[in-house]
Amino acid sequence: MSRLTDGIAENNFIIVGRAGIDFFTDAGVKVEDAATMTVDLGGSSANIGAGICKLGGRAALVTRVSDDSIGSYCINRLAHYGVDTRYVAKIAGEFRNSLAVYESVTEGHRNVIYRNGAADFQMDASDVEAVDYAAYGALITAGTVFAAEPSRSATFRSFELAKAAGLPIIFDVDYRPYSWPSPEVASDVLSRAAAQCDMIVGNDEEFGFIAGDYDKGLEKARALSETVEVVIYKMGEKGAITFAGGEEICTGIYPVDALKPTGAGDSFMAGLVTSMAAGFDLKTSILRGSACASVTVSRPGCAPAMADSAKLEEFLATHPGPTEG
Questions:
Q1: For 55-91, what is each residue's pLDDT tens digit?
Q2: Residue 151's closest CA among 222, 95, 110, 212?
Q3: Which residues contact 132 (CB under 8 A, 6 or more apart)?
């Protein structure tokens, strides 16, 4: 057993990142045609935490939210999904929670995200230093948390503290250009973050971005695997290539009639780590993560669309697939 597998086996995760609020349309409805929308929890790190809890794991989130009704809503929805909010701090002033408005359609899908004066970017060292890392098995974060200060430095500090406590670090690259001051800064910071992790999950575009050339993304993922225990290179409908233990594991996907593209990566991560915690081998865990992604894109919303344990097992038992990787 490695530090990564030992830590994940505890099925208890400390997650560093943002919680936001999502507004989304009914199935097949574009935003301009919507008379009503549904509201629920959003934000990649919050969604990962919700997905883990729905699948029987435990998760706590470290972040900041606005000291207003929206921040209170996010805290309440985190608690609704079972995410521990003891490390979620409110911040006053003009800082606001991130807001996403998206359509439950695939053709011409639009996802509008408001990140002006984002409250989560105000997370600082005091927030991550308040965490009892020894109480958790692994740390998970998503790349957006590195896009601005003081959140960037705080997250690197959380890496130091997690490593000192013996926790493995799991990193979802999650590159969102609109959050960063420049591509050059993003490439440098994400590369530094990736070098410190035990597991990296990203798609072909994200690895290509880190490499500085889309065509070199796969080569970059393979190179990172020389020092990182598990590197998962996702390719959308083409499945994924995972580099682990000197091997390359190719996996397919579970085709579904997708309603929208949002939430797939967050649910993949939740399904992956909870499956590994349950004792499934790496390839099976990746496929179960892919099944979770398929469930999520076939239903409106992100956190509410994610599979719970019963839904995942039902889907695997009744759905054809996976495709060949």
A1: 999 999 999 999 999 999 999 999 999 999 999 999 9
A2: 95
A3: none
> How far apart are the C-alpha atoms of 20 and 115, rounded to whole Å?
10
Domains, the chain: 3-318 (3.40.1190.20)
Q: What is the pLDDT of residues 252-292, one digit of tens each?
A: 999 999 999 999 999 999 999 999 999 999 999 999 999 99
Please state, in angstroms and rounded to a whole number, the distance separating the CA atoms of residues 52 and 47: 9
Residue type (1 letter), 52: I
C-alpha pair distances (Å), 153 with each of 126, 138, 148, 296, 312: 11, 19, 9, 32, 37
Residues 6 or more apart from 109 whose CB is under 8 A from it?
A: 102, 103, 260, 261
Where would I find the beta strands (DSSP E) of the chain? 12-16, 20-24, 38-42, 58-66, 88-91, 99-102, 111-114, 138-142, 169-172, 199-203, 230-234, 240-244, 247-251
Question: Tokens 């500085």 map to which residue?
Answer: 212
- Checking DSSP bridges between strand 20-24 and strand 99-102, what pairing results, if any? parallel
Q: How confident is the model at residue 1 (pLDDT cuts 50, 70, 90)?
A: low
Taken in order 159, 165, 171, 174, the sign of the CA dihedral is negative
Strands 12-16 and 88-91: unpaired
Find the length of the chain: 325
For residue 203, what are the β-bridge partners?
Answer: 234
